[in-house]
Every structure is written in C-alpha cells, then in structure tokens.
Amino acid sequence: MTPSDVVMRIQSALGERLSDLHQPSEKRVYFEVDPNCIPDTARLLHDTLQARLQTAAGVDGPHQMEILYHWALDRLGLVVTVRTRVDRDQPQIASIAAICPAAEWIEREMWELLGISFEGHPDLRHLLLQDDWPHGKYPLRRDFRKD
Amino acid sequence: MSKKNKFLSRSLFLFHLGGSACNNCDIEILDALTPKYDLERFGIIAVGSIRHADIILLSGIFNKKAAIRARRLYEQAPKPVIVLAIGGCACSGLIFRDSYNWDEPVGNYVPIDAYVAGCPPKPEAIIAAITQVIDKLQHPAPAGADR
Amino acid sequence: MAKKTTIIPVGPYHPLQEEPEFFKLYVEGEKVVGLDIELGYNHRGVEKLSEGKDYEETIFLVERVCGICSTSHPIACVQAIEEAGDLEVPQRALYIRSLIGELERIHSHLLWLGLAGHFLGFNTVWMWAWRYREEVLNICEQVTGNRNHYGMLKPGGVRRDVPATEISAIRKMLDTLSSPLDLFRDTVAEDPLIQARTRGIGTLTPQQIRKFAAVGPTARASGVDIDVRRDHPHAAYGMVEWDVVLESRGDIFDKIMVRIGEMFQSVRIIRQCLSRLETEPGPIDSHPKEVKPGEGIGHYEAPRGEVFHYIRSDGSNRPVRHKIRAPSYMNVPTNREAVIGETIADATIILAAVDPCYCCTERMAAVLDPETDRVLISGKELLQRSRRKTAWLRSQLGHEGPDLKWDC
C-alpha cells in the first residue's frame, strides 16, 4: 500500500461526506468531514487501515471549534489528519472511545479544557484539573481569563 | 547551641516533595544522593514518609491541586523542620508563573528556610545549601539578630 | 468467605517518585484486581502558556515540559514550526540535533535502568547506573552548557555548534562508557534476581498495545515494530545506519532489554554523527525571518516513545494553537491492564515499566468497602492488629520486649 492508495481508499469509503482533501507533502494528508461522520471515519482508519491514534486536539475559533484527529500509518510514514467543526456555543460530538480506547483520556482532556461534550464516553470526569474547578470555565478557550 | 538545633543538625532525614515540576530538579536531588555527589556521606538519607523528615526539599511550581496537599504534608512533618525550595519554579514560578493552574509561590503558604535558584540547580548547589543550613543551625546568630 | 476488595492508595507524593501521581490499587488479598489513575498534580497549562510566547520562547517553554526529555520536545516542536512555516534547516544542524537527542536517550535509559533496579529492591543497580549517567551529563554540560535543559534548538537550526575539541571529548566519553554498557547487558540482564522479578511480569500483548496506542520501548518490547526515527525520518536519522531494537514477550524483562539495546544503537548513531560533523562543515542556522501561515506536525522518538507537537501559525510571531502530546500520556493507561492479576509487590515495577518512574511505599490508611465506601477497618484497628501480631510473633520466637498496648 502506498500513501496514494490510502487517499483513494479514504475517498471511496467516505465519498460525498469528505471535503477539502489536500496533501501539503507526501507524508501528510488533511481532510475535513461532518461531525456526525467522525465514528465512521474512526472505524475506517482504526479498523480497516490499522492506523494508530496519535492524538486529537481542539482548536477554539470565533464561531466554531475545530477538532483535529491525528492518525499515524507508521508503515508508510504517513500522518492523516481528520478535521471537523462543531458549534462553539454547544460543542457536541460522538465519542470514539468505544472504537479506539486510546481516545478515552484524550476526550476527557478536551472535555475539561475546551468544554466539548463527547456523547457515549464511558467516563467523562476531570482528568487534569481539580474536581472543584468552576463549571463553565474552560482554560483553552480564547475568552478564558485567569482570575 | 539549643538542644533542639543540636539534634536537628546531625544525620538529617530528607524528604523530597516534588510539586508540578518538570522532573529535572527532582532528578538532580536524587543525583545528589548517588555515588558522584554522595550526600549520604553527611549522614543524610532520603526517607519515604514526611513523618520522619528533618529536612523537606520542595521542587517545581505547586499547582492548584498540589498546593493544598503541599500545605497538608508540611503540617504533618515533625517540627522543627528545615524547608528548602529547590529550583527557580519553587522559588518564584519561573516560566510557569502565568499559568491558569497556579496561584502563588509555595513560599507563601509553607515557610521556607533557604532558596536554591537555578533551572535546574546543580547537585553541588543543593549540597551547598544543605550544608549551609546545617552550619547555621550549629552556629546560630546571636539572639535578636535575624536568622 | 467472600473476598473483600481493599483499596491501597499509592501516591501522590513519595521521595523517589519523580512526578506526583495518584494510583488507587484495588486488591483482593495480594492480588491486584483494579487500578484507577488520577492525574493533574503536574498540570501546568503549557499549551495555553505557549500561545502567549513567540516561537523562540516557545522552545524554552517546551524544554520544561519534561526535564528528562528536554531535547525531545524541542526537536518535535521546531519540526512542527518548520513544517508550518516552511523553513529550511542546514544539514549540519540536523546532525547536531540527532547527536544531542541520542546523548539524552543514553542518560535517560540509564536513569530508568537505575530506578528499575531500585524498585526491585536492587539498589546496587541504581547506584551504578546513575554513576555512569554522570559521565554523559558531564559531556552534555561541556557541549551545551547545562546538565539538562540544553537550549540547543531553535526554529531553522541549532543555537550552538559542536567544535572539533568537543567531538574528541564525546568520543572519549563513548569509549569509557562501552564497558559499563557491556556490564549492564551481560551481568544485569542475566542476574537471577532480576530474572525472577521481571520475567513474565506485567506482560502486554500486541493487541493491548494497539488498544491503548502505546508507543516507544513499551510497544517495541511487545513486538510492535514502530519507531518514529525510522518510520517518519527526521533530523539525521535517515542519513545514518542503525537498527530498531525489538523484543517479543512484552514483559518487564523485555522492556529492560529494549532500553539496554537502544543505548548501544545510540552510541552507534552518535559515532556516525560525529564523523559527519568532522567532515561536513557548514552553517548551523538558516536564520528564518518569519513563519508563514499554515499548520505543521512534528514528532520525535523520545526515550519513552513518540512526542507529538502540532503548531498552527497565522503568520505572526506566536503560535495560534500548540498541541503537545507526551508519550507517557499513551503509555500510562496500559498499566490498567498490565497490573491486573499481579501481586502488590510487583505493582511498583509494573507501574514503573513504561518509564514514568513511579515508586511508592504502599500505605494502608483504612480498609473500605468498595460498594458503600464504609470504613470496615479503621487505621486504629489496623495498628491494634499489627501489635497483636507482633506480640504473637514474639511469643513464638521467644523474644522479650516492652508490653504493647492493644487499645491505643
């Protein structure tokens, strides 16, 4: 399998649901999908393509929040980044912890630092901050101010 | 020399209380105990419980979660006890002083006898600080003068 | 009699624990049946701090993410910046990056080996390993100016050159290090005590590694063939010859062997980097003026596994978003499965095997009923039981001693 085979398989599996696919270099692939398509994408990358979840990160924006899932295909030296956008006022997305258990801590961290709620997460409680951290204050959001 | 200080200046039991450090100061403290620097030749050994401590070494910033516990651990230590702040973070917060998970230097809620600056301080500096504190205990300043 | 689950709190503070971390060990008798990990005693908010610093300052900040990986994070970070901003790096700088990275790997693995010996109750290994680690730190101090936190990296190159005098000093250090490394490989690995305490203990299967997406020596000990240095070539790793060290059984013994093997490979890489540095002069910095808008990923094989950095730039002098993922973040959750079914005595070395270096004296404060959290045996009662047992042992052995109060 070559990097272009991977891109073709992703394109054929996701079809219309995939947008903005670009390859800035032969080692990187970026594409965007709809939030409700994330579990399918995770299944495709984790189960079918045997990719390793490197990490996922949320990026706060003025109206929307981006979530980036980085998957590594180590045999090919390829990193596939899946981008999705959720509403900033009510950020909500399906959890992929059932598909890839490594995502459990990653999603817990995003939930407490950015306030993104993950539906179907087995254990959504504080990971890094103390248990009595004020509700509704998310340090990685742009409008967060330290008291 | 008061009797209290006489006993405190010999064969000190050392307890290392690592806060939210980057590990370097913690490793340099352990380094000071290993063959090259060998703090043990002064009769100083590391102990596993704060209840045995004669001297406490604090390292790193103490974040919101760790600060409460640092104070509680200090209260559990038998008094009199010597407290040393090891490294720039324990002294002032250094590069992490703007962090949202940090309030104030550990010196504000745990009385500190000596500050050892550096990032990380070399084992020589840690040994120098400890021997100077012992020296001060053995030859205290005359009554009325600041310690 | 139905077995009661007891909770043994391990941590968060102990003198030999490098980082404060809290483990709740659920045990039935001697057997560990569950583990809960509580983080957060070390959270400093580096990602947020980084958004307020310019790219040059960011390197100094990420160096302080972890003192023992203080080259790995900067290497991954500068690669992310270079990819985002499309910056050039001179070849000589790449060799220097690999050189410093491998020196760090040797001293980090020696540190872990020493601590592993200590967790097993084998303090001689600790003292010996840390003694030879000092040789490496001395060279680091000579080359970079500091024992840790080297400040060598910058976007577009490195800060300091490695002149010929220092090249010969590093060679000399490698020569003196070769016999201790042989000693560790042959003597320590064949020691019956270490064999007995580590063979078949804390085993992780390749499926479990994949489940938790574990990285680094933890994965390679289980036969999962991943190494960022080979799979995603960066710095000088594509230009020198070396092998990925792989074991198959996934127990703690194999994790020791992977790390010892990697030190030999590091020596090999350093020797090649040194001879290239001698023969290939050139600039060490491309002096970039600006970082173009874009996004970049940088990853590096730190001593513990893959370090991952993501940087987004908007063309200003500060990152818009900087995501950092350290290897232990993926490796520590494997403990939840590795420790199950083992005894409490082995728990410390298993928890330490992924190299976050935790060690704790087990302290039992109170025995709780897991369903109701009701105190079944209080601390006071534990003390009474202990005193009764001491008195019983005395009567068995015929030793005399002061009378012990049972109702304290």
Between the first and last Cα atoms of chain A, what is the distance in angstroms? 53 Å
How would you sum up the global shape of chain C? globular
In the CATH hierarchy, what is the superfamily of the largest domain in chain C? Cytochrome-c3 Hydrogenase, chain B
Question: In angstroms, what is the radius of gyration of chain C?
Answer: 24 Å
The second-level CATH architecture of the domain at 3-88 in chain A is 2-Layer Sandwich
| Helix-strand pattern of chain A | HEEHEEEEHE
Largest sheet composition of chain C: 3 strands, antiparallel
Quick overview:
With 147 residues, chain A is α/β, with parallel strands linked by helices.
Any overview of this molecule?
The complex is a heterotrimer of chains A (147), B (147) and C (408). By secondary structure, chain A is an alpha/beta fold. Chain A has a domain of 86 residues: NADH:ubiquinone oxidoreductase Nqo5 subunit (Beta Polymerase, domain 2, 2-Layer Sandwich). Chain A has 3 helices and 7 strands. The longest helix of chain A is centred in the first third of the chain and has 12 residues. Chain B has 5 helices and 5 strands. In chain B, strand 1, helix 2 and strand 2 form a beta-alpha-beta unit. In chain B, helix 2 crosses helix 5. The longest helix of chain B is centred in the last third of the chain and has 16 residues. Chain C folds into 3 domains: 83 residues, no CATH class; 285 residues, Cytochrome-c3 Hydrogenase, chain B (Orthogonal Bundle); 25 residues, no CATH class. In chain C, 47% of the residues lie in helices and 13% in strands. Chain C has 15 helices and 10 strands. In chain C, a hairpin with a 2-residue loop joins strand 6 and strand 7. Chains B and C meet through strand 1, helix 2 and helix 3 of B and helix 1 and helix 5 of C.
